[in-house]
Amino acid sequence: xxxxxxxxxxxxxxxxxxxxxxxxxxxxxxxxxxxxxxxxxxxxxxxxxxxxxxxxxxxxxxxxxxxxxxxxxxxxxxxxxxxxxxxxxxxxxxxxxxxxxxxxxxxxxxxxxxxxxxxxxxxxxxxxxxxxxxxxxxxxxxxxxxxxxxxxxxxxxxxxxxxxxxxxxxxxxxxxxxxxxxxxxxxxxxxxxxxxxxxxxxxxxxxxxxxxxxxxxxxxxxxxxxxxxxxxxxxxxxxxxxxxxxxxxxxxxxx
Length: 255
Prior knowledge:
- With 255 residues, the chain is of the alpha/beta class.
- It has a single domain (2-253), classed as TIM Barrel (Alpha-Beta Barrel), CATH 3.20.20.
- The chain is built from eight helices and ten strands.
- The chain has helices at 22-25, 43-55, 81-101, 113-121, 123-136, 149-157, 190-203, 230-243; strands at 2-10, 31-35, 59-63, 106-109, 141-145, 161-166, 205-207, 213-215, 220-223, 246-248.
- The protein has a seven-stranded parallel barrel with strand order 1-2-3-4-5-6-9, surrounded by six helices.
- 47% of the residues are buried.
């Protein structure tokens, strides 16, 4: 039987601003990437999301991003490697406090937004992120874009890693994600996205935006929780995976 993790970015509400359908979506996933206050979330939201994950026995990961609340962490920022390591440790530590208080393990770290995309192409940034994780807890898994510099950095830093693919994002020929600024970057047809996921898992390949197939490895599938059809989509993909005899399991049972 095939096994795959199904993850979603959660806990992105802030103060009076509610984002996403966390309580509904969390019932269909195996891992939650919880925002840590830099690009989204706040201490109260973090605490509630950790408790929610514990309630539904969903694995917890930190989702650290750039210090960019206004831009939701999706704007490229240029910081030193020392700052990058400090940003990661700071945000992991914040979420770890809530995990500790709920007697639940912090299993993985997945960088958010622009930090994720930049580190996928920049080895030095990827290595700094991986070293920060190692120095915090070498048993924590780095969840990064399949076959990217993030995975390379994790290998060299000596931490466990998981290859992530995206159900609703288009790929360039080099395996990176198509910029959201480009037309066709986000796949809105749910059936198309789900068929792509099945193809990724069974055939270890995905069609790039140019039509060329590229090789990939799949440990985890990301579904975005902030889209208008997020709940409907996560229900459908969860149902289809089970119909295809693909077992949905958390990262620590796959890596």
